[in-house]
Amino acid sequence: MPSWPVLISQAFNGLALGTLLALVSSGLTIILGTLGVLNFAHGALFAVGAYAAFVLLQYTSSFVLAIVVGCGFMLVLGFLLERIIIRYFYDRPHEDQILVTYGVGIVLVECVRAAFGGNAQRVPVPSWGQGATQMGFLIYPTYRLQLIAIIAGLLLSLYLVLYRTSMGLVVRAGIENPGMVGILGINVRRAFLLVFAIGVVAVGLAGMLYAPVVAVTPDMGANFMAQSFVVIVLGGLGSFPGAVIGGLIAGEIISLTSAFNSSYSEVMLYALMAVLLIMRPQGLFGSEGRA
Amino acid sequence: MSLLEVDKINTLYGDSHVLFDLSIRVEQGEVVALLGRNGAGKTTTLRSIMGVLSPRSGHIRLDGKSIEGLPPSAIAGMGVQLVPEERAIFGGLTVEENLRIAALTAPNAWSYDRIYDVFPRLKERRKSAGRTLSGGEQQMLAIARALIRDARIILLDEPFEGLAPLIVRDLVEVSRNLAAEGRTMIVVEQNVAAALSFANRVYGLNNGHVVFEGTPADLNASPDLMRDFLGVGM
């Protein structure tokens, strides 16, 4: 049995991983729910975000500025991918969509590898996040605490966009029935472009923010993508609240299991998914409709 | 010139040919009923007009301008509004959000209050999620979404299907009032008596062909036609 400080520290790690998975998964689930496309390039885009932070921080010492410029870059990348490739696949079978997004992912990862090599790169922790914070009997890295707060803030903003703006209204309606949104006079395809770009920014931003905490490698997104798929299945396909709650649950399960035996952490995650799918096939917040 | 003119369209679902050189026209301020058995092509006609399906050949003209082949959002932008058979209420959105999204792109959108004058029940349920509405309330909301857009032509697909008689009576009353105000509508309905109570003109469809055109009085005067082509005994 691990000691309490270890367990609590792991619970904080779980929160950091969980919020991150929530952000990555909300991008994935909104794209899937609205466009009907399961974006297999999502993990590669996470890595692209991390490398964007790596490159930009060589030109500026301001972490915030790097993030802002990085988001602009991800937005443009999202627009281009949708306009040049993804939009031609909306009416194609799911197999084609999986193949093309998987292909885009490979191309992105190999471009990163060609440009920066396969070795791990280090991204510095921002100046305001150095050191550790004393929290009672626990000392915890300051940046990781800030990361939890920053991502919680981002998820809140995403919530406000989805539930308090006209664009969010179109996205939520589009997740349920894109055909009817079109019949009500809204150009669904234009909304799709924006949704895809926002999803790309969300995952890229997650990569940028996480870069100082991990080794930045071209393949760093693969593991996150697998876990994100589990998260959106847990939460219910196309559900934003599901992605957030599912992300937190997955983060805690992985981290807390690691405190006992790290080799079982992923096993526990998939076991939970299997049990949940038996009891509630549509996921925590999913509806039985379209997937 | 008719407000809407469907001119010899042929529409297919995959490989199955559903509409054969089908032509109908609708004048400004008119209510036209499309009657016929299941599979006669009524719903397909409405979906072709809305642009949900593209006719293989033929023309659909609004104010004399061809609209066939345009996407539904563009056709909605010209004032045509389908109220689909399955109602297609957004279940996760509230009643008011369903109205708000409908009004988003409408230049002369009605106020919520004007909608609630027509359907007071929707005002009581305005904060409720669409999925919690009864069938009758969903149908009211489906029609309300077309009204709030101030649609020039409303295409009603089986608006009374599966509803309790009292609710059908209320909806017929609303439809009559809309007709009396000069709102142009095409109504597809199995409940022939209800449809004929507010239609000015009737087309009978059979196997994707127009087999009858006339007034409700003409139709009432020929019970054979009702029975043979429309599958209804009266």
Describe the structure concisely.
The complex is a heterodimer of chains A (291) and B (234). Chain A is an all-alpha fold.
Task: Name the features.
heterodimer; A: 291 residues; mainly alpha; two-stranded antiparallel sheet; 3% strand; globular; B: 234 residues; alpha/beta; Rossmann fold; four-stranded antiparallel sheet; 10 helices
Structure description:
The complex is a heterodimer of chains A (291) and B (234). Chain A has 291 residues and is mostly helical. Helices cover 71% and strands 3% of the residues of chain A. Chain A has helices spanning 4-35, 42-56, 63-84, 94-116, 142-164, 166-176, 178-183, 188-210, 220-235, 240-260, 265-279, and strands at 132-135, 138-141. The radius of gyration of chain A is 19 Å and the shape is globular. Chain B is α/β, with parallel strands linked by helices and 234 residues long. Chain B has a six-stranded mixed β-sheet with strand order 6-7-8-3-9-10, sandwiched between helices. A four-stranded antiparallel β-sheet of chain B has the order 2-1-4-5, covered by helices on one side. Chain B has ten helices and ten strands. The interface between A and B is medium-sized, with 19 and 24 residues.
Mean pLDDT of chain B: 93
Main beta sheet of chain A: 2 strands, antiparallel
Helix/strand-derived category of chain B reads alpha/beta
What is the topology, as strand order, of the major beta sheet of chain A?
1-2
**Helical coverage of chain B, percent range:** 25-40%
Tell me, what is the CATH class of chain B?
A: Alpha Beta
Helix content of chain A: over 70%
SSE series of chain A: HHHHEEHHHHHHH
Ends distance of chain A: 41 Å
Query: Largest protein interface?
Result: A-B, 19 and 24 residues
Topology:
The complex is a heterodimer of chains A (291) and B (234).
Chain A: H1 4-35, H2 42-56, H3 63-84, H4 94-116, E1 132-135, E2 138-141, H5 142-164, H6 166-176, H7 178-183, H8 188-210, H9 220-235, H10 240-260, H11 265-279
Antiparallel strand pairs in A: 1-2
Helix pairs in contact in A: 1-5, 1-6, 1-8, 1-9, 1-10, 2-3, 2-4, 2-8, 2-9, 3-8, 5-6, 6-8, 9-10, 9-11, 10-11
Chain B: E1 4-13, E2 16-26, E3 31-36, H1 42-50, E4 57-62, E5 65-66, H2 72-77, E6 80-83, H3 95-103, H4 112-118, H5 120-124, H6 135-148, E7 153-157, H7 165-180, E8 184-188, H8 192-196, E9 201-206, E10 209-214, H9 216-220, H10 223-230
Parallel strand pairs in B: 3-8, 3-9, 6-7, 7-8
Antiparallel strand pairs in B: 1-2, 1-4, 4-5, 9-10
Helix pairs in contact in B: 3-6
